[in-house]
Amino acid sequence: MSKIEKMSILGVRSFGVEDKDKQVITFFSPLTVLVGPNGAGKTTIIECLKYITSGDFPPGSKGNTFVHDPKDAHETEVRAQIRLQFRDVNGEQVMVQRSMQSTQKGKKTPEFKTLEGVIARVKHGEKVSLSSKCAEIDREMITALGVSKAVLNHVIFCHQEESNWPLSEGKALKQKFDEIFSATRYIKVLETLRQLRLKQANTVKSCQVELRYLKQNKEKAQEIRDLLTAKEAQLAASRESVQRLEGQIEPLENRLMDIDNNLGKVMKLDNDIKALDSRKKQMEEDNRELEEKMEQVFQGSDEQLQEMYQNHQRTVHEKERRLETCQRDTERAYRECQRLNRAKSELLMEQGRLQVQADRQAQNVRNRDAHVKNLAAHLEMEGYERAPFSERQLRSFRQQVTERQDRETEAANQAMRDMQEKEATKQRSIDEIRDKKTGLERTVDLKRDLQQKRQQELRNVRGDLQQLEGSSARLQELEQELAKAERELENAVQASDVDGLKAEVQELQTEKTRLDRAQRRLDQEMETLNAHTKTRTEMDMLKKDKTDKEEQVRKIKSRHNEDLTSLLGHFPNKKQLEDWIHGKNREINQTREKLYKLSKDLASAEQNKSHCSAEIRRKEQQLTSFEEQMFNVCGSQDFQSDLVKLQEDLEKCSKQRGTEFTSGGAEQGPLSALGEACLLA
């Protein structure tokens, strides 16, 4: 069994801080009684025992007030020390020391800190010390004393301010007992077990649901597996059938391929035969036509014929080169035309965009002037009846509206404040009168109930009198009771002062009517103030709208400032801008008319170009045809010399054979046309 023997106190509460002020108290067995007046230090001793054993400071103290005040000691630093000598549960002697320090810096709150503690034991006649840096003194004390920290705090060394905790509420009391009997950890374990059980139950439920779905999936998988096995068997049988059929088809395909190859060769030979026959017939026909057309067969050698052919080829190449040059020039002109069309489209788009911006700007200016005119008419401002307005007029209007708005706002605010004060005063009066009215109505109700009760008693007495008219003695008694009741009724009526109450009620009704009228008047004034507030809100909105419009105008001006300055040389006013826009619109209309005419001319030129291109292609086709005819007729001979020679021969023949003039003229016509086509090419 553990037992406390001695304790020394230094620098705690009112105990001194000098070594000579150290106080030692010896505890006797089985009981030590501390007796002394208030302020003698009895509670401080219990607090020191509690601190040295459990390490907890007194309630409401974090250490600053537990240590001796440095101001009272006239020191900047005060150290406190508590030592305890006791015997542990094994009967061994143990010494414990805890130290604290409080430092005063200026006028700030003293700084408190706990210094290193020491616990010492006597083992085998030797003193063994253990610092708080190496061990937890609180845990060592609990182990040595054999009681828990809760028992030390709440039972053995319970502070006098907390000594009535057994009379606390149920929750606080339960918490104390749980701490004393260490039931908190068991409660936490039970709560953990309950949560774990609930979690496991939820897990089991989810696993059961999952197991049910897994069983369904397993059955479905088994069905799919069986179906897959059957389908695989069918597939294997089908593959065997396919392989067998492929084995039967392969020789047939080889045979068919051979037949197709032979058929292709036969068809190719047949086509070659037909082509050769056709070529033969064509060559025979061409040869026959050439023989019919040629009157003179070329008598030169093959070298001369080859030379004439090469000369003709050079001439053809030169014509082709000139044709390619013309085609390139045509393509270049076409590309230039397309570029001009694109530039025209871009100019039209830019013109449309500028026109839209100009129209929007004009509309914004008209809207602004309309708003200014309407607002000026609403505010009864003179000088703004005719639009458009100049910048000076707009600045003046803006300044007047701002001043007017400030005045209206100040007046509305002042009226609002006055009305709020009046409303508060009236509301207080109404509340007082309503309270007074309620009290008087309650009094009237009580008096009325009392009067009704008396009248009911009177009616009951009169009824009894009517029933007992035959008994004179009873009648006298009843008359006496009636007289007594009438006297009581008169006394009650006199005490009640019904007329006074009625007059007071009438006065209260009149006051209520007057207050109702005042309340209606206040409501009307509130509506007026709300209307002023609405007007002020509208003015704020108009002001905001005006600010937005000014910001938009500023942005538009800043966005188009450089363009307008570059176009006009300076930033124009409204009239100059309108004149410039009007002139540009007139120029745009003229340009549109010119553009329309040019578009018509361009369309006509494109049509002529298409016609000329078609005519050129037709002439080129005729040229090609004539060149082929000329080559077929002349070969590589010089066409001009042959033509001159042929004309001379024709003239001679025309003179000699008049009967063949028509035939000669018919031949000369196509030859002349062929010569002219060659010259044109």
Annotation keywords:
single chain; 681 residues; alpha+beta; seven-stranded antiparallel β-sheet; 74% helix
Shape: extended
Proportion in β-strands = 5-15%
Helix share of residues?
over 70%
- Mean of the pLDDT scores? 77
The total of beta strands comes to 7
What letter string, H or E per element, gives the SSE order?
A: EEHHEEEEEHHHHHHHHHHH
Instruction: Classify the secondary structure makeup into a structural class.
Output: alpha+beta
Instruction: Show unreliable segments.
Output: 659-681
Span from first to last CA?
140 Å
| Biggest beta sheet attributes | 7 strands, antiparallel
Radius of gyration (Å):
65 Å
Number of helices: 13
Summary, kept brief:
The chain has 681 residues and is α+β, with helices and mostly antiparallel strands.
Structure description:
This protein is an alpha+beta fold and 681 residues long. The protein is 74% helix and 7% strand. α8 packs antiparallel against α9 and α12 (639-656) packs antiparallel against α13. The longest helix has 111 residues, at 183-293. This is Rad50/SbcC-type AAA domain-containing protein. One of its GO terms (cellular component) is chromosome, telomeric region.
